[in-house]
């Protein structure tokens, strides 16, 4: 049942994404549900099944490939920040599946759990930045982020750091998480999956850097009224979103 539920989640995520993105609480909780499902899989696949281990590995390899390729290809076409984050998360799940395939013998589970811990901070930090920007401007369009650094350097830098960590650039936490995960996959003979993971990581870095460039160097003609009229609010320790953002940004850069 648990395996079937996770497989259905991967397929139905495309259809459910619009609903999730309109509900901030549900979208926030969707991160932890993926973490719980991945953690459960580390125990589930240790149990003998009717099918052989090779057949399960083939199924998981197909899911990983589809997740990494489709998730990142669809993410690069999005104009909404929340949709971009949602579809890029599908690609992140593909990386995690590599650790499940490797299993416990080559440190796959350990590398998967390590990466998932980093993923929680990176993804929730990015999501907190997006929510704060949306609350202050009323928009979610990527183009409306142009020139944000000139109005709110702290929010722009926080979002940039989380995106760079999601992309896996050194020396941020996401880099070491991916390095450990891919290295375990390579040692286990999953060179093809690791190669796809590296290529799709480069693709994700491309569209993350496009957003960061927009944040930092938006031209005057590119800056929309949403940022032009942006009013920076002082950080408040009682604001749970701002506090979560700070904690997650710190965790993403360590």
From TrEMBL:
Keywords: Membrane, NAD, Plastid, Translocase, Transmembrane, Transmembrane helix, Transport. The lineage of its organism: Eukaryota, Viridiplantae, Streptophyta, Embryophyta, Tracheophyta. The chain crosses the membrane at residues 56-77, 84-103, 109-133, 154-176, 188-209. Pfam families: Proton_antipo_M. It is a multi-pass membrane protein. InterPro entries: ND/Mrp_TM. Its main location: membrane. This is NADH:quinone oxidoreductase/Mrp antiporter transmembrane domain-containing protein. Residues 25-204 form the NADH:quinone oxidoreductase/Mrp antiporter transmembrane domain. It comes from Cuscuta campestris.
